[in-house]
Amino acid sequence: MGLGVFLMVYGCYVLLRGESRVLRGNRWLDAAAGALGGITGGLAGFPGAFVTIWCSMRGWDKLRQRATYQPYILAMQLLTIACLQWQAPAQAVVKQDFALVPFALLEPSGASRCFNG
Known about the structure:
single chain, mainly alpha, 75% helix
């Protein structure tokens, strides 16, 4: 519930703010955004929230942001599947999850243009 409230408040802030202030990043702040993403990924199944927010705070254009957070989310999801397999190797459901990964990577060529104008 706390994550949902935070995201709602942040979304309202982004809509209502005037001029956006670009922050400079460094390795420690990048790592902190990734760590927060790992925590929220484990707690709420939502690993990309903090990484996405951090990319937008850096002032990057949307293509550079996506080139950063989409591979991060994919890596987090694959790592989660691997950890689930390690925890419960007898469950066939996890093996089926790996079979679906290639299909999740496929994207129709115009789908992102339809949703993003």
